[in-house]
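Sample 1 of the test manifest.
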Amino acid sequence: MSHLHTRFFVTLIGSLAAFALGGIVMWHVDDGSPVVHAVHGFLIFPCLALCITLATWPLTRRLTKRLERLERAVESLGAGNLSARVAVEGRDEVARLAQSFNRSAQRIEELVCAHKRLLANASHELRTPLARVRIGIELMGESADAERKAGLEQDMAELDQLIEEILLASRLDALAEPNAEEDIDLLALAAEECARYRDAQLDGIAVDYRGDPRLLRRLLRNLLDNAQRHGLAPIDMRIERDGACVVIRVSDCGPTIPADQTRHLFESFHRGPATKWNGGAGLGLSLVRQIAHRHGGMVEYRATTPHGNSFVVTLPLPNRANRCGVTTP
Amino acid sequence: MLRSVSGSQLTCTMPERILIVEDDARLAEMLSEYLGGAGFRVAHVTLGTTALEYLGVEPCDAVVLDLMLPDMDGLDVCRQLRTKFDTPVLMLTARGDATDRIVGLELGADDYLPKPFAPRELLARLRAILRRRTNGTAAERSLCFGRLEIDRSARTVCLDGTARTITSYQFALLVALAENAGRVLSRETLMDLVKGETLEAYDRSIDVHISRIRAEIEDDPKHARRIITVRGAGYVFAKAQD
C-alpha cells in the first residue's frame, strides 16, 4: 500500500467491517426486549467512533510524527542549517515529500556554496590587480608627480570601497551567515570612524553593544560617507541611549532631500536626481539598512528644519528587542 | 616557477630571505622588486606544494603566503608548513572574510594582511615578525596596528620600521591605550593604568603627554587617527589603522 489515501480507505473499511461484525454478534443475542433495543441504539455510534479511532490511531500518529520531523527539517533549513535533511521512510506521499525536500535542500546547499565560491573568487580576482596597482604606485618612487600619485591612491581607495560594498551587499543578501558578534564600545568605534573625516564631530555617551564590529564599522562609515558626499559640513554624529535601544544619529547641513525621493533612499543603486555626481554606487545606505536589520534594528531618514538631513539608526540592545519598539521586515 | 631577486640595499649582515607564495606572477614580481629594494633576498613560487618542497631545501626567514593558490588552499599550506618548519608566515588574502583571518592565525600564521595592502604596511609587518623571531620575543609581547609596532619587552615604538622616541611614561601610556584599543579610556582610567610609572617633573598632564605621543606616531598630529580624543569622555586608541 504505497498511497496514504489507500491506507486510510482500507483502515476505514476494516473498522466498519469490525463494527458490522460486532453488530451481527449483538443481533444474535438480541432477545427482542425494548431495553436491549435501546441499549443497541445508544451504543451504536460510540462503538462506531471507537472502532474507527482505534483502527486509525496508529496510522495517524505515525503520519503526524513523520510530518513533525519534516517540519523540523524545514525550520532548520530556514534557520540557515543547509545540511538539514530528513529520513525517507516508506514509499507514500509523505516519503515522496521528504525526498523532494531533500533534493531541494541539496540544491540550495549547492547553490549557496557556489555563491560563496563565486564571491571568494570575485574578491580574489578583483583585489589582486588592485594590490598590483597599489604596489605599482609605491614603486613609482619620488620621481612621480606627487599630486598624480595621490589622485591614483584616492581612485584606488574608491575602487576598493566599491568592490567591498558590492561583495558585502551580495553576501548579506544571499547568505544567512550569523553575525560574528563581539562586545563593542560603540562610542569608541564611532570616534575611530569620525577621525577619518575632517568635518565630522562626535558627541554622545559610552554604550557597550554586542554586534558584528566589521559590519557596524561599515554602517558608521557609510553614514558619514553619505553625509560628506551629499550633505554639507559640519557633520554631527551622536550616540545615545533611548530606553532599551541605542540610537546613532548622523546629521549634516545639506539641502533637504525632496519628500518623493526619501522612500527610495535605502534601495540598492539609488542615486537620486543629483545635479552633479558625487561618487558612490548607491549602495551605501542600502548596506546601512541591511546591517541595521541584521542587528534587529532599523534606519530612517528625517529632514531637519529649516534645512539639513538626519539619518537615525535604532538598534535594540541584546534581549530587549521587544521593549524597543523596533520593527524590522 | 621559481624566481629570485636580490636586494639592492647594501647591509653589513646577510640579507634575510623571504619566500613569496603567490599565483599571480605580476603581483609576485612587483612584490619581489619592492621587498628586494628594501634589502631582502626574495624567492617566488606559485604553488603550495612547491613552497613546501622549496622550504625543505632552502630555509627562509619568512614566508608571504597568498591564501588562494591553484593547487591547494593557503590554509592547508600554512597547516603543513607549521608542522615541518618554524618559519614565520604572513598571510595575504583577498577574500575579505574574517573567518580566514581567525583560522589562519589559529593555524599558526604570524600575521595577516588583506589585499589590497599598502606596501609599507607589508614591509613594517614583515620586519616586525622577523624582529620577533630574531629577538625570540613572543608575539604576545608585541602589538601591531597597521604600520605601527609597539614592542612591550624592548619598550620600543616603530612606525614604518623606524624607531620613535618617547619617554618611559609616554610608552606606558601608549601601551595602556593600545592594550585597550577600541575602548574609550577616561583620563582617570589612564592615570590608574599607568600608576607606578615615574612621572616627568616638568609636566603631569595626560593631555600634554598624549600630544607628544601623537607627534611621534601620527602621520598628521593635528588630525590624529591613532589616538583619538572623544569629547567629554577621554581617548580611544584606534583598532583599525593603516
